[in-house]
Specification:
This protein is of the alpha/beta class. Helices cover about 20% and strands about 30% of the residues. The strands form eight sheets. It has a nine-stranded parallel sheet with strand order 12-15-18-21-24-27-30-33-36, covered by helices on one side. The structure holds uridine-diphosphate-N-acetylglucosamine and magnesium ion.
Length: about 450
């Protein structure tokens, strides 16, 4: 998803409050619901991102002590307010009032658990309130399964007169599928006064924000509703809804990539974070996860079963069923199947890392081959070197990590064990099963256990 700050017609004077201080007990998780990541981004920050494409003023994240960590993950400039205890959505908005900027005249209130919210819905709701010239407007939709939502009661003119929470609803009211989306636009002055009049529910002790709707109706201004589609207004309260939201976001992201020319045969099994950039003409096979600030260059192919995190993949690369993290592949590099590229690796142009190889903080020059079953840690390998099957760098002596350097054009025999710190010269070689304990000059050959060094030969 592109950052929103480039949007041409963003509104000013509209300040959003995103309610994210709830416990989210229906998720059954220790971590508060609004922090749960959907494609790498905490749920409430999807809402913030969407609002940001519509309104230019900084939004307010309303947080609890348990969700305070969200603020550090939000875009710079995001404001914060704290609700010390989860005493209901009405109390939550009260807690945000002192943080409202002086110039804020219109307040958008959104729930941090509606991650699918589309910017077009937000703009339409703002427009609806302005057109109706009333203090409050809200979004509603017909839910396929209305369980858990507040039901919206309408008057003959189709305006909302009351919201009845499910727990307070009669069986008859529960039959209604017209539900409150939890998205409101309110005139600031009216909001501040009306909030003071809210009283706690006798049943739960919570102060319901939804009681503002009855307050507006009682004051002669029943709220217009923006009838949206459930597709972007559904709330996430439990694990099933969480999975549904994740799938919807995945589809949205993948559709965007396909429109830009990325090939996917089965987008239902491909999970790409909104922070990932993929060039046209990249092919992504089924069962792939790509996360973090990753970029993938044109004509690369990410084959089935790969996981790539926070990495730069060049043009024309192939990644086969491999795990790559915080690393770089230069153009034409090939990795896998079943390779593990751990943080800090830089795989040279046209290099090949084969099956069951593990690399950590290792730099491979162009055209290096690490074909099979090797472990290279803290190692630099010069151009076109060939690392034989089962070559292992013993880079850790139990106390510290040590570096290995392997020169350009070097060749390690099968099962070579390199005890770091150590340097193998350019075009040096080791025989099969060599245990190398000391530096090898350019062009030298080492054989045996421990290695006997034969110089002057290639
Ligand atoms: C709320 C609405 C309901 C609506 C639904 C839409 C109320 C009383 N009910 O119900 O009418 O249909 O959203 O999804 O508003 N939160 C706080 N502080 C609190 C309580 C909640 O910040 O003290 C936050 C939560 O983190 C969450 C949002 O407010 O992001 C909504 O709270 P939640 O408990 O999910 O309310 P619902 O039962 O879904
Ligand atoms: Mg909810």
């Amino acid at each position: 998803m592109t950052p929103s700050s480039t949007g041409p017609e963003r509104l000013s004077g509209v300040t959003a409050i995103i309610l994210a201080a709830g416990v989210g007990s229906r998720m059954g998780a220790a971590e508060p619901k609004v922090l749960h990541p959907l494609l790498g981004r905490p749920m409430a920050l999807w809402v913030l991102e969407s609002i940001h494409t519509v309104a230019s003023d900084p939004a307010i994240l309303l947080l609890s002590p348990a969700t305070a960590a969200l603020h550090a993950l939000a875009p710079k400039g995001t404001l914060r307010a704290e609700q010390p205890e989860p005493r209901g959505t009405g109390d939550a908005v009260r807690c945000a009032i002192p943080v409202l900027p002086v110039g804020a005249t219109e307040i958008l209130i959104a729930c941090g658990d509606t991650p699918l919210l589309e910017p077009s819905t937000i703009s339409a709701l703002i427009a609806a309130r302005r057109a109706a010239k009333v203090p409050l407007a809200l979004a509603a939709f017909h839910a396929e399964d209305p369980t858990g939502y507040g039901r919206v009661e309408l008057n003959d003119a189709g305006r909302a007169t009351r919201i009845i929470e499910e727990r307070d609803a009669s069986p008859e009211t529960r039959e209604s599928d017209l539900v409150n989306a939890g998205l409101y636009v309110v005139e600031r002055a009216w909001l501040e006064t009306a909030l003071k009049g809210l009283v706690a529910s006798k049943a739960t002790g919570e102060i319901y924000l939804t009681d503002l709707v009855a307050a507006a109706a009682a004051a002669g201004s029943p709220a217009p509703i923006l009838l949206g589609s459930g597709a972007d207004l559904e709330g996430v309260n439990d694990r099933r809804q969480f999975a549904d939201a994740a799938a919807a976001l995945r589809e949205r992201i993948n559709a965007g990539h396909m429109e830009r020319g990325v090939g996917m045969v089965d987008p239902t099994t491909i999970w790409i974070d909104p922070t990932v950039e993929i060039a046209a003409d990249v092919t992504i096979e089924p069962n792939v996860m790509i996360s973090g600030a990753t970029a993938i260059g044109a004509r690369s192919c990410i084959e089935s079963g790969s996981r790539i995190h926070q990495s730069q993949i060049g043009e024309g690369c192939t990644v086969r069923s491999s795990d790559i993290s915080e690393s770089r592949l230069r153009d034409g590099a090939e990795v896998g199947p079943f390779a593990h590229i751990r943080p800090g690796c830089d795989i040279g142009a046209g290099a090949h890392v084969g099956n069951y190889a593990e690399l950590k903080a290792t730099i491979l020059g162009a055209r290096v081959k690490v074909g099979h079953h090797s472990y290279l840690g803290d190692t630099t390998v010069g151009e076109a070197a060939n690392i034989g099957a089962g070559t292992i760098t013993a880079n850790y002596d139990g106390v510290a990590k040590h570096a290995t350097s392997i020169g350009a054009g070097a060749f390690t025999g099968i099962g070579t064990l390199i005890v770091a710190p150590l340097s193998m010269g350019a075009k040096s070689k080791t025989g099969a099963g060599t245990v190398l304990l000391e530096d090898l000059p350019d062009g030298a050959l080492a054989v045996g256990v421990p290695a006997r060094i034969i110089t002057g030969r290639e």
